[in-house]
Amino acid sequence: MSSTDYTSLKMALQIKLQDLEDRAERIENRLSDPGSPDWEENAALHSNDEVLNALSDLTHHDIQEIRLAISRIDEGSYGTCAQCGSKIGQPRLKLLPFTSTCVSCA
Predict the structure, then answer these.
(1) Could you tell me which of 93, 79, 97, 83 has the C-alpha nearest to residue 16?
(2) Does the residue 39 lie in any domain?
(3) pLDDT value at position 47?
(4) Number of independent structural domains in the chain
(5) How far is CA 36 from the centre of its chain?
(6) Per the domain annotation, does 25 fall within a domain?
(7) What is the pTM of this model?
(8) Cα–Cα distance between 49 and 82 in angstroms, integer?
(9) Bigger pLDDT: 56 or 49?
(10) Which pLDDT belongs to residue 33?
(11) What is the residue range of 11's domain?
């Protein structure tokens, strides 16, 4: 990829990052809702909390990965495997734009 490609990729990652941060905020707001004093109503309201917690964990993981990818773009190390130092293949980068490892090290 050329530096122009990285610029457009960085913008796409920043948009994805903002979307994920918005999602994380909505999930956290939902999880922090104390609910209703009515036990049955509260049980129904919080029946999906386990799923929301898992989504929150996944969202925060993706946020961290995207921030690291943006940082690697800024540093000029994007596209280089963090473990062995070899180039990460373009098909892998297109599929997983925030990956930091080549196929061999993954």
Answers:
(1) 97
(2) yes
(3) 73
(4) 1
(5) 32
(6) yes
(7) 0.79
(8) 35
(9) 56
(10) 74
(11) 3-79
